[in-house]
Amino acid sequence: MSIIKTQIWCLEPDSILLILKERDVFENYKLALFLPPKNSYAEKWEGFRTGVENGRILFHIENIQENWEAPFVIEEFGNRCKRVFYNTQRGYPYKDPVGSSPDVVRDKIRDLQSKKPFRSANELLHPLRTIKSESEISCLQRAASISGNAYREVMAKDFLEENQLATELEYRFKMGGCQRSAYVPVVAGGRNGLCIHYTANDDAFQQNDMVLVDAGGEYGGYVTDISRTWPTGRGFTPAQRDLYQAVLNVQKKCIDLCTSSAGLSLARIHYESAVLLKEELKQIGIYGSKSEIEDVLYPHSIGHEIGLEIHDCYSNNSFSPLKKNQIVTIEPGIYVPLNNRWPKWAQGIAIRIEDSVLVGEQEPFVLTKDTPKEVKEIQSLRESSEL
Ligand code: GLY
Ligand code: MN
Ligand code: MN
């Protein structure tokens, strides 16, 4: 039986959960869940609604009401509390947190916001979501394994266009058991990869370029985040292989640092990655200062947490040492501009290698280990590739 069938999710649009914490002890709180009312007309057009009756059975919450009643309860809870923590949507704090709520709820919240100290609920939720439980890890592992197998399949095929590769990869995520893609895939042929979040995916591949792919599936609400770069031709050119191996060496060394016993933070691992990349590049004749490495050749960070969101728990301090059962990405890259400051042979090459990594006490565990990344393995998949 798949894990998803044993878990109960409330994913219904326009639902609201209120938690009123009365005193500083864990048990002392009141919960109220608001669900859209049953409505045979709306359900005929838009699909099934859980409704209050079913909700009580499924969610084990006594106080379940229809969502039009929410503003009254928000007012009541609001009058009784000292501080309000609020989130309606996933996303970054710079988005208006109230903006996406239905009008009447939004007005109530704005009213409360003007009267009470008001803070993001992420402050409370992100620390709770940082260390993953066994069942969370098994969802993350499943997303990683399904996605890794999909990568292996597409790496062994030739595609004429970026869009075809993207479509086949997403198809395989879903056919493998993922519910959806975790985010819009990046499928960037050749120099399109110089744009870090390239998602147009509408160009044709050129022979003997590389393709940079950043994509992953979602399983049971949990995501995986993978990047791989491979040749569009029958194998690596010497220039592609040298640069690829340099990034891979950095990536593997950084993965080794993902243990609680090492006691390093993501910020510190990022620092190490820039130093390591500078050294690796020197070995192959690319000389850049540390600031050129960090601002020009490798302008993003080594990684981030993953979980329910692709950039999970983003309000956590990136200077905190990694802890056992945190899950992070390790994703160094290189993006060599079309600029004669850099050797001609390297210009226009873009490479990112990203794995989803479970932090262990003494050893990290790479959840995405089924996704090919060694030069030999990729070379052999490409040598036997077919349309
Ligand atoms: N796929 C987004 C990222 O790697 O952060
Ligand atoms: Mn990532
Ligand atoms: Mn990614």
Automatic annotation (TrEMBL):
Keywords: Hydrolase, Manganese, Metal-binding
Cofactor(s) it depends on: Mn(2+)
GO BP of this protein: proteolysis
Ranges of residues in domain Peptidase M24: 139-361
Keyword Hydrolase attached: yes
Gene Ontology CC terms: mitochondrion
Record carries keyword Hydrolase: yes
An example Gene Ontology molecular-function term: metalloaminopeptidase activity
InterPro entries named among the record's database cross-references: Aminopep_P_N, Creatin/AminoP/Spt16_N, Creatinase/aminopeptidase-like, Pept_M24, Peptidase_M24B_aminopep-P_CS, X-Pro_dipept-like
Highest taxon listed in the record's lineage: Eukaryota
Short name of any one Pfam family annotated for the protein: Peptidase_M24
Aminopeptidase P N-terminal domain ranges (all copies): 10-83
Family stated for the protein in its record: Belongs to the peptidase M24B family.
PANTHER family for the chain: XAA-PRO AMINOPEPTIDASE 3
UniProt-recorded name of the protein: Mitochondrial intermediate cleavage peptidase Icp55
Organism of this sequence: Schizosaccharomyces osmophilus
